[in-house]
Amino acid sequence: MVKRSSRKAKRDDFQNALRTVEDAIESSLTKNPAAVALGRQGGLKGGKARAAKLSAEQRKAIAQQGGKARWAKGK
Fold first, then answer.
1. pLDDT value at position 12?
2. What is the C-alpha separation between 13 and 21, in angstroms, rounded?
3. Rounded to the nearest 5 degrees, what angle is found at the Cα of 26, between the Cα atoms of 24 and 28?
4. DSSP per residue, 5-48
5. In angstroms, rounded to a whole number, what is the distance separating the alpha carbons of residues 26 and 62?
6. Which positions ≥6 away from 54 have C-beta within 8 Å?
7. Is residue 37 classed exposed, middle or buried when 0-12, 13-18 and 19+ CB atoms within 10 A define those classes?
8. Sign, Cα dihedral of 6, 9, 15, 20
9. How far apart are CA 72 and CA 64, in angstroms?
């Protein structure tokens, strides 16, 4: 009788070649430090700027919606 556990899918040559190329591309990609710094600048002031634009009523509504969502989660 044939052992079923020995029937693992094997990669063919094309899949191995594709995986090798993808690994080579992934390892060669690096982030531009200037772009990272620029994105961080915007991210640091984004929440404060959004809060400054909102009225007190809008902030309260958003907070209530967030509280309801947190309490609705089951443990």
1. 84
2. 12
3. 70
4. GG------HHHHHHHHHHHHHHHH----HHHHHHHHHHHHHHHH
5. 39
6. 62
7. exposed
8. negative
9. 12
**Is residue 25 within 8 Å of 17, Cβ to Cβ?**
no
pLDDT tens digit sequence for 32-70: 889 889 888 888 888 889 889 999 999 999 999 999 999
Contact between residue 40 and residue 32 where contact means Cβ atoms under 8 Å apart = no
The pair of structure tokens assigned to 68 is: 């309801």
- CA gap 32, 39 in Å, rounded: 11
Indicate the length of the chain as a whole number: 75
CA–CA separation, 19 and 12 (whole Å): 11
Q: Please tell me the pTM assigned to this model.
A: 0.42
Summarize pLDDT for 1-26 with one digit per residue, the tens: 566 655 556 668 888 888 888 888 87
